[in-house]
Amino acid sequence: MRKGNRSLYLTALPYTASNHLLPDRTKVFLSITDPDARPKSRTELLVALFHLTPAESRIAMLLAAGEQPPEIAARTRSSYAAVRSHLKSINPSTRR
To answer: CA 90, CA 96: separation in Å to the nearest integer?
Structure first.
């Protein structure tokens, strides 16, 4: 819980990458940051905020960067089937 009148930072970034999981429409990534808090890695943030596994969070970051599943499989040295499985877990409509 925050005390006093300390500031938070709000960052809005447009998201333009498109793939079959995220069809073409306006998307925005919002980030609210407490400048006094200990910085966390992007992986830690995705795990904490969206209850992703570390592997799912790495794949989500590569997907957000515009990489396609075959490229993600090669970069992470995973099978294409493993990447697809992680993507199905990440998809909000199929989340546990």
So the answer is: 9
